Here is the input.
Amino acid sequence: MSETITIDGKEIPFKAGQTIIEAATAAGVYIPHLCHKPGYKPHGSCKLCTVNVNGRRCSACTFPAATGQAILNKTQELEDNRRKITQMLFVEGNHFCPSCEKTGNCQLQGVAYYLAMKDNHFPHFFANRELDASHPDLLIDHNRCIFCNLCVRASQEKDGKNVFAISGRGINKRLIINSKTGLLKDSDIEVNDCAVQVCPTGAILEKRKGYSTPIGQRIYDTQQIDQVSLTQETVYE
Amino acid sequence: MYENLETAKSPEKLKRVVVDPVSRVEGHGKVTLLLDENNKVKQARLHIVEFRGFERFIQGRPYWELPVLVQRLCGICPVSHHLAAAKAIDQLVGVDPENLPPAADKLRRLLHFGQVLQSHALHFFHLSSPDLLFGFESEISQRNIIAVLNEYPDIGLQGVKLRKYGQEVIRRVSGKRIHGTGAIAGGMNKSLTKSERDYLQKDIKQIIAWAQGSVALIKKVHCSNLPYYDDFATIPSNYLGLVKENGALEFYHGGIRAKDAKGKIIMDQIDYCNYNDYIHEEVRSWTYMKFPYLTALGKEEGWYRVGPLARLNNCDFIDTPLAEQARVEFKQQGNGVMVHSTLAFHWARLIEVLHCAESIESLLNDADIMSSDLVTQGEKRFEGVGVIEAPRGTLFHHYEVDENDIVTKANLIVSTTSNNRGMNESVRQVAAEYLSGQELTEPLLNNLEVAIRAYDPCLSCATHAVGKMPLQLELVDAEGQIIDKLIKHNDGQIERNL
Here is the structure.
């Protein structure tokens, strides 16, 4: 008989070594997340996947599943907190969904819809961030970076490179490029690198491809992010 | 004709009357009148007092964002900006209009016809029909679409459904009724499926019939008040717009033609990429909107009008039979040469609705709109110009990009800008002929608005919709004392307040 945890009262089996989010996803339970991606080392930075484990708050993407855990996931309080976190991400950068080419394919937007985020709520920071279009095939719009660290991990773990790093702390945090000039064109990044494809928002983009997918055929046009996550993120490398 | 009313000789001695805001493109405008002691109008100006800044904040963005970003200029005719920008960025990827895949060209035209149809229907039925059906100085409670639906339910409903059909065309081609995607550099991102084509085909006969009915309606309204309609806000002017190579009415792509007030061609089949050689813009200190003029004729003589009236005056014929028949009847108003009546904008607009409906039917029968050959590419360029005939007139988009694909410079001449002088002239004519020497009343306010509204300035819908355009009219004496003040509130209530 396999070991189990409960999430919102539902009994869920897990395998030794699985995190809570891995066990939940395998059992068809969605826990909102942005910095987590199956097959990548857990990072635990976005805090969106925070759940209540036996009365304590933990990041589901880093916390191991263990027998006897009674986990609360879809509670009003947790969903409210997740919405606030998402709103803070929106006001910290410059996320203009109406004209952004990632609209419909953007996880940040998908999570915002899932959490019924109706407005930004918090005062906008109006951050003054750069756009690096120096690379012939790629660009980085720092306005849309949410510091999920996925590109950093992808470059190191999947591409065998070291193109990105997160520098600074708090409000001064920023994504930096490992090149002499600090520009993308002087790095060894290539268009097919996982670091390019993994970006959950419109921060790292392949040039000249925007809007080529018609409305109605984009990832989140027909399915909410929970359904997409459960059908596409169940395979762990 | 009324140029002497642009700047009064001794303004400090005159009473000042302000209409602020009035409906217009992309935000706020106001009308100021300066009156002497007998309430005779000595100065009349339409000021555009809002600054948008789109040309600045699209600098620094990648060029492929342009069609989707700049369409946010407008919620009424976003497709026009979408397509003008798309035509400009086609050139950035080395694609000239004649090299666009036929499917993409036809899908863009279909999208544009849907757009012109819905925009014109919105303007005529929702915004202007209350003035035209009930009278310019009718009860304020009547001057809205709800009253039209109550008094003339068939007409009102047809207007709503005509607009809806145009929006459905837009939705099928671009994914959304407002602010969709669709056009991308060098083509389109989707074609129509058979079911989408069938969906649009099923109602098109009815749409054509309603469009015919609306042309008959405006003709009747116009002709039953002929002397008044021919005079009100009317000014002879030059006209500018695109026409096909054979001189036919054209909305999507053609050469620039301009005619003078007598119908003589000033220039013809000009490549719009060289628009800077033919059109300059003058800045005047009292308004944020520039005054474009034909360089060859100079600032004073070179101003021109654009939009439906200009297009029907400029073209030699319309290449759809029902609209062509309507055009011939329309042109009889100007003895077959030029029609200068500002209120004839409405009539011209509805003939264009009919042309759109007929053209949509023709395109829906064309198999190319379901083709998958949608995009092409050429060699990169650093400058692109896109010009189309938007519902309100000729629309210019001009961009420059750097080697990293980033926009470095942008210039947009929107249709209403071209009509700036025309609207000012019409305001002056109405002020001089219909207001001068009279006591201020709310219906007088509406006369000014009717003149401006005939041009269909862009944001008129947002402020005028359902009679909710707030207005403030002040009468100030020579010492600067306010001696009379009328306020129209959002709910349509009029208050006289000192």
Chain A has a mean pLDDT of 95. The radius of gyration of chain A is 18 Å.
